[in-house]
Amino acid sequence: MDQSLSHPTQSPKLGIILLLGIITIAWFVTYNLLQPLADWISYSALGLTRGSHLGDAVAFFLYDVPKILLLLSGMIFLISILRTFFSPERTRAMLGGKRQGIGNVLAAMLGIVTPFCSCSAVPLFIGFVESGIPLGVTFSFLIAAPTINEVAIILLFGLFGWKVAGLYIVSGLIIAILAGMVIGRLNLERYVEDFVWKMQAAGGVEGEKLNWADRIQRAWESVKEIVGKVWLYVIVGIAVGAGIHGYVPESALVGIMGKQAWWSVPAAVLLGIPLYSNAAGVIPIVSALMEKGASLGTVLAFMMSVVGLSLPETIILRRVLKPQLIVVFVGTVAIAIMITGYLFNLVL
Amino acid sequence: MVNIKVLGSGCANCKRLEATVRRVVETLAVEAEIEKVTDYAEIMKWPILSTPGLVINNKLVSTGRIPSEKEITDWLTA
Predict the structure, then answer these.
(1) A221 and chain B: CB distance < 8 Å anywhere?
(2) What is the pLDDT of residues A262-313, one digit of tens each?
(3) Where along chain A do its domains lie?
(4) Interface contact A88-B50, CB threshold 8 A
(5) B11/A118 Cβ within 8 A
(6) What's the domain count of chain B?
(7) Mutate which of A84, A114, A118, A119 to test chain B, going by most B C-beta atoms within 10 A?
(8) Which residues of B are known catalytic residues?
(9) Across all residues in chain B, what is the average pLDDT?
(10) Nearest-Cα residue of chain A relative to residue B53
């Protein structure tokens, strides 16, 4: 049974395009002015000394806060537009009939672009499983979606460059694919709560038909919503990062978080499991830690563990998964993150 | 009287949707019965894959996001 969703009214096109053009130019101009402006304010206007603790910390803060906020606004806008082309319903249709292996890869990739909120984990899980998508493939999606978080990607890109951001995406995908395949192989269907299997698969909802004005409108609302949620975390996180940047001596952390401390990766992952923060809160701190000698693999492992394995989401999933399956889920993802952490420590 | 159901199990987004709906209903001074559906078995009776969901007079109008006040107004005055 098809049910189409309602459609809001349209708005003039040319005005929007012009406005977007102006905003884009303003964005680029402002972005390129940030570093010189931050330096000027810190070292000329405020008269701080370049190379001093306070001077460097302030310059770091004044440069990174507007930079990150600009990046967040710009990129969330673009990503949200991309996301208007995807929906959980469309993803479910695309995954139907795909077997393990290919299904896991596709599910993980779709997990990145399909809009997803962790409170939707249950309806999504039920909906996917009910329509015949294998358990392992569903898990690949459920692991990729929160772990490969767009705010995290944008922040990593802003603070470390595209290589690290790319690494994060790739490792998230590998983890989602492998963990999903392992869970699929273990044939754990009996550890899904019984009522799930008894429910009728709901008929497909036809996706909304959106025109460009709608997409832009949605993307703009997304920007307001997400930046509105995380801006304070970003400022506090960067302030802490600025403090570490200015005051903690170089290489202070090599001993406990550097490559040589083999136990740092599992410790980082285990520490991250009970902790939950949105990506914005963790990353600026993580960036400063890295500057002081913590190795990339350990730090990424910590981040993925904090952002990807969350106590709130696990509690929500308890409604549809029996405890054994939850343990397998958390355990598999944790081990996969650890392996990735070691890999990057070795390779980089 | 309009029957409105907010489908969702209590996360921040679902609560925001309920608050937004209540605001619109109050502004429009429409007579409405607003129900919060938090039981998953009930929620899944609707073809919904991502919460929060909004049902107006037994028609599912939105899933997976918080519609704007304008959109909700349009649906309620249609």
Answers:
(1) yes
(2) 788 888 888 888 777 777 777 777 777 777 777 888 888 888 888 878 777 7
(3) 37-196+232-347
(4) yes
(5) yes
(6) 1
(7) A119
(8) 11, 14
(9) 88
(10) A120
Q: Which pLDDT tens digit goes with each residue over A182-233? A: 998 888 888 888 888 877 655 555 566 788 888 888 888 889 888 888 888 8
- What integer pLDDT is reported at residue A49 of this predicted model? 78
Consecutive H or E run containing B62: strand B59-63
Looking at residue B44, which CATH number applies to its domain?
3.40.30.10
Average of pLDDT values for A3-15?
59
With 50 as the cut, is the pLDDT of residue A9 above it? no
- Cα–Cα distance, A103 to A180 (Å, whole number): 10
pLDDT at A105 over 90: yes
- Is the pLDDT confidence value at A258 over 70? no
Domain span including residue B43? 2-77
In chain B, residues with a C-beta closer than 8 Å to the C-beta of A128 are 49
Residue B36 belongs to what H/E stretch?
A: strand B32-37
- How distant is the alpha carbon of residue A231 from its chain centre? 16
Over residues A111-132, the mean pLDDT reads 84
- Please, is A198 exposed, middle or buried when counting C-beta atoms within 10 Å of its C-beta (0-12, 13-18, 19+)? exposed
- Nearest-by-CA chain B residue for A123: B49
The pair of three-digit structure tokens given for residue A75, joined into one six-digit string: 């990129």
In chain B, the residue whose alpha carbon lies closest to the alpha carbon of A8 is: B71
Which residues share a beta bridge with B5?
A: B35, B55
Strand partners, B53: B7, B63
Which of these, B16, B2, B9, B17, lies nearest to B62 by C-alpha position? B17
B43 touches chain A (CB under 8 A): yes
Nearest to A311 by CA among A261, A264, A270, A273: A273
pTM: 0.81
ipTM of the complex: 0.83
